[in-house]
Design brief:
Layout (H helix, E strand, L loop, with lengths): L7 H7 L2 H13 L4 H10 L9 H4 L17 H9 L5 H5 L5 H12 L9 E4 L2 E3 L3 E2 L7 E7 L5 E9 L6 E6 L6 E2 L4 E8 L5 E11 L5 E11 L6 E3 L3 E8 L7 E7 L7 E7 L6 E5 L12 E8 L5 E11 L6 E10 L5 E4 L2 E8 L5 E9 L7 E8 L3 E3 L14 E8 L5 E11 L2 E12 L7 E2 L5 E7 L7 E7 L5 E9 L6 E4 L7 E2 L3 E9 L5 E11 L4 E11 L7 E4 L2 E3 L7 E7 L5 E9 L2 E3 L11 E3 L4 E8 L5 E11 L4 E10 L15 H4 L9 H19 L5
Parallel strand pairs: 2-10, 3-10, 12-18, 20-26, 28-35, 37-44
Antiparallel strand pairs: 1-4, 4-8, 5-7, 5-9, 6-8, 9-10, 11-13, 13-16, 14-17, 15-16, 17-18, 19-21, 21-24, 22-25, 23-24, 25-26, 27-29, 29-33, 30-32, 30-34, 31-33, 34-35, 36-38, 38-42, 39-41, 39-43, 40-42, 43-44
Length: 709
């Protein structure tokens, strides 16, 4: 919401008399609710559209773009929308009622209105199915909602209780130190990784500034000592939309993944439900094909309704997975064949352009919103000269339902003043129109351009993780500076996309200068996610870029590299160091190492930590292995490293122990017999008897001659 530059004398010029009278009458009948207006200002209308705070900062008192001119003055807001100031007409058209306008104006006039948060954390409990010891389960979500009228500030998020160490926060949109706006919510993802077998319990605790100061969810799970399979899916539902009767749809794909430690065996893959016969099943998943740990397969589903109206069904996958069977909801509607198209944006504003300068270019994205293949027969511009479709073949290929194409539109004014025209895209069944506007001037003006000509797609990204940022460059090859009036991500799933870069609202771009807009995708749920990037300059130029991505619940496969992958010790008894490196983007939790043959791990202070341990992305460590043969000859063996989620890696080992030399085990010579006097070892040495007689003779002689002794 930008561009509040109208004064009272100018209102009637921009408002129809009936519309103004309606606003004035509404003001008499409706007691404006400033608190509701605050919600609209901070969060945007319930029907979609960006929050005023995105462009005017969190408080109207900053008076960004003279928003205080709308204080207690709903007519000023309506006038700005009618004039499409800062793109307001595009953003809020049909989304704000007269009551909403009055409430919004009341808040702008009283921005200090008080509000109080109220927290609600649901469900009351999260129960994890049987999970093998040391293996992390798929995360479960708890939703923290703010049902009050003030911001809910989150202090801490943690796990408490007897088995707190077996549960962990695995992501989500809630964050310590963050805030949840009134009427909004966020999620906390919790994972279960049992350390001992049996029932385990704890509590998820969220401390906040709402009533009671904290909220909690009971956590429970069961640890299993036996390896188990775990199933994951890329989506939990498929909506085919409106399909032409008796015409098959394009197949929709679902990916199944086994993140467990044993093979996933399917016992049944079946379509059912009220209209199960409408659907057909395909893909490479099959009852006869077990899925190894870490592997995946794909199922496809197509629909062909035979009658008009809604249809539903489900795809059920039964297996030996520890987390139970999976049911994927299927829905759509049948209707007579209808060709339909939509355009993004539906208003294309070029702003002021210097007469005689190079033509400004903007793009319109056309989408097949019908249920039959769409073919465009013509692309034409009707109205003032100066607008045209860029030379070349555009949207010449037939579009299946849901597909898109781009049309580049040029504007090169030949005279001063305002210009208006309409882009008309004619297809089999009708036409879609886009309003075009611009102005010619002899003054120096900015000439904004963006580097992207069409939709920005991010592909499949695991829920809770972020895609690599996409960079869009805003350039100004014009002769005057421009200011960014609006820069927002909006739409059905705007919260799943992240905005960054050096471009910013109220930021200036000098002639020949540029700035960058970075967009990224962080899905909060599986399935297709859609949004829109809207950029409006102070000169009235608008750019609209569709954003798309698909959230997936399948965990990324570990990426462990071993150097070397095999080794022959030969006859050497020296230990060998093997380097383990994590070349992936997620931590690898190594849980066990199983040795075979005369090989064993050697404890080394500079080597890998004791198992189990986590090897972080980009990190490496050395596993030290020794060779201790028990007999001569060749030896073969291995070490198998195992990770949570079923990943395993093997190092092949070999050795060749030398034969033991003859008499190598004979005892060394001993000084038997006291001084080498005898070699007799059986106790019958005759020398002993002679010595005994001599000793007896000496004693007898001394007793007979005591004086001489």
């Amino acid at each position: 919401m930008t561009g509040f530059r109208l004064n009272q004398s100018g209102l009637r010029h921009h408002l129809r008399g009936a519309g103004l009278c309606a606003l004035l009458a509404m003001g008499q009948a409706h007691a404006a609710d400033a608190l509701h207006g605050k919600t609209l200002y901070l969060n945007g209308p319930a029907g979609g559209g960006t929050a005023c705070a995105r462009c005017h900062t969190a408080s109207p008192t900053a008076n960004v773009s003279k928003i205080l001119s709308a204080a207690d003055n709903p007519a000023a807001i309506s006038a700005a929308m009618a004039a499409n100031k800062g793109g307001m007409g595009n953003i809020y058209a049909g989304k704000l009622s007269d009551v909403d306008l009055a409430d919004l104006a009341a808040f702008i006039g009283n921005p200090g209105v008080g509000a109080a948060p109220a927290a609600s954390l649901n469900p009351a409990s999260l129960a994890f199915s049987g999970t093998v010891l040391g293996q992390a389960s798929s995360p479960l979500a708890a939703t923290l909602a703010n049902t009050g009228s003030g911001a809910l500030n989150i202090d801490t998020i943690g796990v408490t209780g007897a088995a707190a160490a077996d549960f962990s926060i695995a992501g989500g949109t809630c964050a310590p130190g963050g805030a949840v706006a009134a009427g909004a919510n966020c999620t906390v993802l919790v994972s279960f990784k049992p350390s001992v077998a049996g029932a385990r319990s704890a509590s998820l605790a969220v401390a906040h500034n709402g009533t009671g100061g904290s909220s909690s969810v009971a956590l429970s799970g069961t640890g299993s000592a036996a390896p188990q399979a775990t199933i994951g899916v890329s989506a939990t539902s498929i909506n085919f939309g409106a399909l032409a009767t008796n015409t098959p749809s394009a197949p929709q794909s679902i990916t199944l993944n086994n993140s467990g430690q044993s093979a996933l065996t399917f016992s049944s893959i079946a379509l059912a439900g009220a209209n199960g016969a409408v659907f057909t099943l395909g893909g490479d998943c099959a009852v006869s094909k077990p899925l190894a740990g870490g592997a995946s397969c794909a199922l496809t589903v197509a629909a062909q309704p035979t009658a008009s109206g809604a249809f539903t069904g489900n795809l059920t996958v039964a297996s030996n997975a520890a987390n139970g069977n999976v049911t994927i909801g299927l829905a759509g509607s049948g209707a007579s064949a209808t060709a339909a198209a939509g355009a993004t944006p539906n208003v294309l504003a070029f702003g002021s352009q210097t007469i005689g300068s190079a033509a400004a270019t903007q793009n319109v994205t056309l989408t097949n919103t019908g249920n039959v293949v769409l073919t465009f027969s013509s692309l034409a511009v009707n109205g003032a000269a100066g607008f045209s479709v860029a030379p070349g073949s555009h949207c010449a290929t037939a579009l299946v339902p849901g597909a898109t194409c781009s049309v580049p539109v040029l504007f090169a004014p030949s005279a001063k003043g305002a210009f208006a025209a309409t882009l008309v895209a004619t297809f089999n069944g009708g036409a879609v129109q886009v309003a075009l506007s611009g102005a010619g001037t002899t003054a120096a003006v900015a000439s904004p351009t963006v580097s992207d000509a069409g939709p920005i797609g991010f592909g499949e990204i695991e829920v809770g993780k972020s895609a690599a940022p996409h960079t869009t460059v805003l350039r100004n090859p014009g002769t005057a500076a421009l200011t960014i009036a609006t820069l927002v991500i909006d739409g059905a799933n705007g919260g799943d996309f992240v905005l960054g870069g050096s471009c910013a609202v109220n930021g200036a771009v000098s002639p020949a200068g540029s700035c960058t807009i970075e967009t990224s995708f962080k899905p909060g749920a599986p399935g297709a996610r859609l949004a829109n990037l809207l950029l409006v300059t102070d000169g009235g130029t608008q750019f609209s870029l569709p954003l798309s991505g698909t959230g997936t619940a399948i965990a990324a496969a570990p990426a462990l590299t071993l150097t070397p992958q095999s080794f022959d010790f030969g006859s050497s008894a020296a230990s060998k160091r093997f380097t383990l490196s994590n070349a992936g983007t997620a931590a690898i939790n190594l849980s066990a190492a199983t040795f075979s043959g005369p090989f064993a791990r050697v404890n080394d202070a500079s080597g890998c930590a004791a198992l189990p341990f986590a090897l972080q992305p980009g990190a490496s460590c050395d596993l030290v292995i020794g060779y201790t043969p028990a007999a001569a000859g060749a030896s073969n063996g291995s070490v198998v490293l195992q990770a949570d989620g079923g990943g395993s890696w093997t190092i092949a080992l070999a050795g060749q122990a030398a034969a033991v030399p003859p008499n190598a085990n004979a005892a060394p010579a001993q000084n038997q017999g006291g001084g080498g006097c005898s070699s007799v070892r059986d106790g019958t040495d005759p020398m002993l008897a002679l010595l005994a007689l001599l000793a007896a003779g000496v004693l007898f002689w001394r007793r007979r001659n005591p004086a001489q002794s």
